Here is the input.
Amino acid sequence: MPNEKSSVLQDSGFDYSDITPIPLKTIDPNDLKTPALCDILYSDDYRELISLLRPLMKANEHSQRALYLTDMIIERIAGHYTVWSYRYNILETLSSKDKSNGSSELTNELAWCEEVALQNPKNYQIWHYRGLIIDLLLDRYPDQFDIEGEYKILKHMLNEDNKNYHVWSYRRLFVEKFDLFDKKEELQFVRDKINEDMRNNSAWNHLFFLKFGRYKLKLQKTVDDSVVSDEISFAKELISKAPTNPSSWNYLNGIYKILKKNIIELKSFVTQFTNLVYEDSVSVYAFELLAEIHVLEKDLEESKKVYELLAKTLDPVRVNYWEYKKAQLTVV
Amino acid sequence: MENASQPKQAEKQDNSESDSTPSSEQEPKPKLEKQRHISYFKRFLSLLPSQFESEDSNKLAIIYFSLCGLDLLNAIPLVFPNKTELQSHIDWIYAHSITTESYFGFRGSLVYEHCGNERYDPVNLASTCFALQVLLLLGDDLARVNRVKLMRYVKLCQNEDGSFAPFVELESGKKLGDVDVRYCMLASLCRKIMKWDEYLDERKGHTYDSDEVFDIDIDGLTRYIKSLKSFDGGLAQASMLESHAGLTYCGLCALSMINQLHPEEWQDTINFLVHRQLYYNLYNQNELRDNEYAELEDNGGFDGRVNKYADTCYAFWCCASLDLLGGLKLVHSEAVLGYLLQQTQHPYMGGFLKTNDDDMPDPLHSFLGLCVCCFFGNGDYGCDGLDKIDSGFVLSKKTVEHWRTIKFVDQ
Here is the structure.
């Protein structure tokens, strides 16, 4: 747009003057009797960018200037669902093997992803997109992929927000893809995260994935006894440190559930946390587990008493749930 | 986080003195500010400043939240008394529709127009679902929706493993976008709104899997959703990821829409869901001291993941999930209403905040907060006179009634 006074693209270093823009309809200020629902008063910058993006997409132009434009769009509207596939398609062309700098297009792109992710930790599209670029890199220039670089960015992102769901999801995919279940650094990372904050449920979940993921995903038939006993001890140790932390209890329960182990063997451990004289070591989760242990012992009366205690005294916000559990006992 | 942990400790002492029941009788009960909520939702249905550009693709969702909010407040006739105005809004929603030779559906915003249907202006599952819900809210009879073409597209979005992609690049046939159980829900909802079970029933005896008589892979979808269940009973974004109340709702809703939700299979999920309601008292007061995410003000509210803050939207995702499983009565309704109306309802602007640390309400949290009020309809909290909500469609009972009367005419 050579004649526009202040184009948002004037410092881009690219020439867009040959493109015929497809502008967005403008709102007629004289006809506001029935404005459209949720009508956004677009800024001039946004209008200009969209008016150029549309013809470029329509022509499916794969060029550096198109790449630059998608960056500008993503910065303003990360939820634009096709600009991501357009950007990917552009990269696919620019990084083709017959191009001299094909591989650096992809490594630069990973750096770009990193920058976008750091600027906006809630941008969840970026992680899916990053996964696609890595696939492309592995397909075309496998020796250019730097797995340590991935560790660095993941570590950084999780230090910024140690419960960021998108980043943990990406990490999970990453572990599965490169079979990092037993990698020392991976285990150390997640143990450190838990030691840093033993209430970081995302970290507990990741540990569960590392330890029992291959079994659950049917990649292996059994879990080593030593792994099971180590993890049970780990959970018990952290429960003892903070008996009211649900994450460690869920972890312990999860191991028993997934391996179909008998929870009766937890009884002596659990009853350390059900003595009301010692308020500081009382845990509602211990009582909940105790009620289930009583059921397995076929002592429904005792189980009923526990649910009554939970409902009336220990955890009254779930009074209806504990009553429901109690009512179910008669059915068992 | 550091700052947040200081007031917590001060309040901890008060709490240990008080009795441990979630709602005390003496305090005056906070009330739902109905008029302010009406004004709040009205605002989003009009002109919005350019700061909303980033939400351009989610426009139909914002319309849905706001319009459905008004509908639950029984305020649509009040806000849109004029039939021709309603009609022009209906037309405007249809302006977002895309019809190709084989497919029909909606795009998220008119910014996608002129980018080429085959590649960059595809039908989007989320936009399609929101558009259909908005049309129902506006009283439209869906006569301009071609349900066979729409369902063809929904089917096209399904992956081998039973999950759904949000959209497909028609030229290459590539399924694009993040795979997520949200799209399972949106696909199932579209199918339900299209009355696809009835459609197939009417065509019994026809060859299955023809161009006209076909269905999504129901078994595959069911299997996929079940595979997302975590060891603690909640559902996650992928197998073995951390369970999350919002994603749990999406999975359960999808199953409910395809008649595959059997509560006896989800008892551990009920357990996960009821434990999302937060409550700090004498027996877990150490959390207020040691857990940086524990706050006394969150009492009664719901978190979405274990050891997180209460957030308005999770009150809805949990209550609605429990409702789908026949367990809404397991919730402590006064505690959650107390939390929402005292902590996250904006007393002047109307609407609900995401958490009590936020400053500005947003349409999603405002709508979902209101939905929770509709579940319980408790007059003591000013929640009487609201319409009931259907937990599967997430529409008012009266709009679901309107949907029931719709007869599709297939070409």
In short: The two ends of chain A are 76 Å apart (CA to CA). The mean pLDDT of chain A is 93.
